[in-house]
Amino acid sequence: MASTTAPVAVVSLTLRSGDRDYRLPGVGSRSLLYVFDGRQIGALTETSDGADLVPDSTHPEARLTFWDDAATTLVPLSVRLA
Q1: How far apart are CA 76 and CA 55, in angstroms?
Q2: Among 11, 21, 22, 39, which one has the highest count of C-beta atoms within 10 angstroms of its own C-beta?
Q3: Whole-model pTM?
Q4: What is the pLDDT of residues 59-68, one digit of tens each?
Q5: Rounded to an integer, what is the distance from CA 76 to the centroid of its chain?
Q6: β-pair partners for 32
Q7: What are the E-state strand segments in 1-82?
Q8: Segment 11-43, tens digit of pLDDT
Q9: What's the angle, vertex CA 33, arms to CA 47 and CA 17, rounded to 5?
Q10: Rounded to whole angstroms, how far apart are CA atoms 39 and 28?
Q11: How does pLDDT run across 43-58, given as a tens digit for each residue?
Q12: Under DSSP, is residue 72 helix (H, G, I), strand (E, B) or coil?
C-alpha cells in the first residue's frame, strides 16, 4: 500500500542545455522526469530561491517531491529522502 505522503529530497540540481529552449517556474512548476542511474522518476520541483529552471542553470537546494514511493528504491542512497 502506498503511503499518503510522497518522498521528498533536497538536491543540487544542474540542468544541461539540449535541443530545446525552456523556462519553467522555480515554484509551482509541473512535474518533470529525472534520471537516477539511468532510471526515470517524476517529481514536482521547487528551487530554494524561486529561480526559474532554465538550460545551463544550477540550483543548490532544489526540493523534489516525488510522485510516489518508488523513489525510495530508484533514488541513490547518497540522496537523503525526507
Answers
A1: 24
A2: 11
A3: 0.73
A4: 999 988 888 7
A5: 13
A6: 43
A7: 8-15, 32-36, 39-46, 57-66
A8: 888 888 888 888 888 887 767 888 777 778 888
A9: 70
A10: 24
A11: 889 999 999 999 999 9
A12: helix
